[in-house]
Design a protein that fits this description.
The structure is a single chain. By secondary structure, the chain is α/β, with parallel strands linked by helices. The chain has a single domain, classed as TIM Barrel, CATH 3.20.20.70. The chain is 29% helix and 26% strand. It has 8 helices and 16 strands. α1 runs parallel beside α2. The protein is globular and about 40 Å long. The termini are close together. The relative contact order is 0.15.
Length: 254
Amino acid sequence: MKFRPCIDLRNGKVVQIVGGTLSDKTQDSLVTNFESARTPEQFAQRYQADQLFGGHVIALGPGNTKSALEALQAFPGGLQMGGGIHPENAHTFLDAGASHVIVTSYVFSKGRMDMDKLNTLVKAVGKKRLVLDLSCRKRDGQFWIVTDRWQNFTEMAVTPATIEHLSAFCDEFLIHGVDVEGKMQGIQEELVTLLGEHSPIPATYAGGAGRFSDLDRVKDLGQGRVDLTIGSALDIFGGTIPYQQVVAWHKTQK
């Protein structure tokens, strides 16, 4: 198990938000936990210095391309890029240094997986450089993949069969537990357990981590096979979990 760092971008700034409040329609509903005076490039340089590979840069809406490219160029091969990715722009980020591109909304059409688009994307960037974002919300006792700033439910549930099927098209999964994202009130244990038991490829979980002990909790529930992202709860994002303590924990893992 690894700790995966993050650089979430809103209007070119590094932020931490409550994920479920993100919307294209209005800024009034967005709940922002933190906005940093440090640049995305500075965060990337810090992650590089601490040898934290496999983190993600996420563009939360438009106006983030310049900042994202600066972060990727500061840590070549060390970060993944997500947010508005499609076959026409993917290589812009890969050529700038992204190890992978992360995709959700492009491959969904009218709530369903568009296999033609997914195959087009795989052909454009290659399976080994693609991460599928299965970020989800719970409804009727099941986790359902959500798209379009996490506001719209698809008709695809996160089940063992779904995980197995989609693993053939990508190198990794990234999964935000959207209902708890940014709230720092606890991880969605059921989702972590599901990934640990059924994902045949690397999977990273994000959402709700609020205590240092959540690292060991995810390691236990995920059988050591699910990595964890911590955002708002880290002291570098205004939280209380010491970033350096997390880095030290990470370095003890095999």
